[in-house]
Amino acid sequence: MPQQTTEAGRTPAAAPPAAGYRRLFSLPGTRAFTSGNLLARLPMGMFSVSAVVMIAGSRGSYALAGAVTATGLGATAVAGPWIARRVDRHGQARVAVPATLVAVLGSLALLLCVRYGAPDWTLFAAYAATAATPNTGGLSRARWAHLLRDDPDALHTANSFEQAADELCFMLGPVLASFLTGTFFPEAGTLAGAVLLLTGMLLFTAQRATEPPPLARSKAPSPLRTPGIPPLLACFTATGAVFGSMEVVTIAYADAQGHRAAAGAVLALQAAGSCAAGLVYGAVKPAGLGLTRCLAAMAVLMTLPWLSATLAGSLPVLAGSLLVAGMATAPTMVTAMTLVQGRTPPDRLNEGMSLVVTGLLAGVAGGSALGGWAAEHLSPAAAFLVPAAAACLALLIDSAARGARSLRRTP
Predict the structure, then answer these.
(1) Same domain, 228 and 206
(2) What is the DSSP letter of 3?
(3) In 3D, which of 111, 97, 91, 103 has the Cα closest to residue 215?
(4) What is d(CA 166, CA 359) in angstroms, rounded to the nearest whole number?
(5) Which residue has the higher pLDDT, 4 or 365?
(6) Separation in Å, CA 246 to CA 45, 172, 253, 371, 382
(7) How many domains, in total, are found in the chain?
(8) ∠2-208-14 over CA atoms, to 5°?
């Protein structure tokens, strides 16, 4: 256990180095802030699906729905690092709560604009306001980094849990959104997501004992100028392209097979594989498994969906290959995120992790576009080469960065 100063000023003795999830959640306050954060994080997998269903159902245009959600992604990429800098400087509760209120108001405004037939431009403006949503996963990781700053093994386990939580939320979020919009009314998914986000954030920020202390205006360089960070962000962008292209291509392939409704369940298997691998990776932490080996494993495993789609031509076989391919995702993300935490100046940690999200979103957007083009102009089966190529690109970026570091160290 890391050395922590309690409110009484005493420093508890360090625990044995054996790590485990039970040990993580034995720390005071960790169960409470994790519960609130998971509640706030679940809507991240709901909002896009809910918005697309709501807008397309009302306006009859998937193109408009896609453009609105793309605008939200772009606004998030711009606003995310700015909000994170304010969090680092002023504290999580002081910044995250008002930012969440702005985002919730944006979601409610979108709902009302769709419900009452407001002009199309109001949809873009309302959804852009949701970019104020704080990086909920980053806020939780920052707490773990603060609590476990002297215990890298426990921090590895915590990061693995957080990645598994991300996968779980992105697996359950679309399912919940689809259920709500289909069972009740088209706006139900957006409304429920807004309520969950606000409730979860209020519960999370109420746990002040585990909140990292705010820091004065940082004199450290931007994470973008911190050695080692730019190549990692480039790797995250390429990894985001894996996610974005795989989603679009899988939907296109399922549609071509006449089973478009099953695409969500097939994609959920990829997230399930990643979630399971993340939990195991956090508990075991295989020796010597660095970022390069994780990226190499991802590059190899991401060829399995292409082989399944090309050789077998069966959706169940593809589903099995996605389950296996997803197992390389979480270890890669955990290892890369740990490197970001280690290389980012402590007083700019939230900003560094927000830049990771920006890189991922940029990759998701680019991968979605390229995957859609390949599925339309080549074939859905051949388009599975796009996520495989994106995984190879991430490996090449890491290899080039390692080579450059070796040259700088050579006298």
Answers:
(1) no
(2) -
(3) 91
(4) 16
(5) 365
(6) 16, 18, 10, 7, 12
(7) 2
(8) 10
Please determine, for residue 6, whether its predicted confidence score (pLDDT) is greater than 90: no
The pTM assigned to this predicted structure is: 0.75
How far apart CA 271 and CA 242 sit, in angstroms, is 13
Task: Give the pLDDT band of residue 409 (cuts 50, 70, 90).
Answer: low
Start-to-end CA distance of the chain, whole Å, equals: 40
Task: Tell me the percentage of the chain whose pLDDT exceeds 90.
Answer: 33
Task: Tell me how far apart the alpha carbons of residues 83 and 384 are, in angstroms, rounded to a whole number.
Answer: 36
Whole domain around residue 241: which residue ranges? 223-411
229 shares a domain with 136: no
Six-digit token pair at 161? 């849990």
Residue type (1 letter), 389: A
For 217, other C-beta atoms within 10 Å of its C-beta total 8
Of 232, 233, 238, 216, which is closest to residue 347 (Cα–Cα)? 216
pLDDT for the residue 193: 94
Please name the helix (run of DSSP H) or strand (run of DSSP E) that holds residue 336, with its range, or none.
helix 329-343
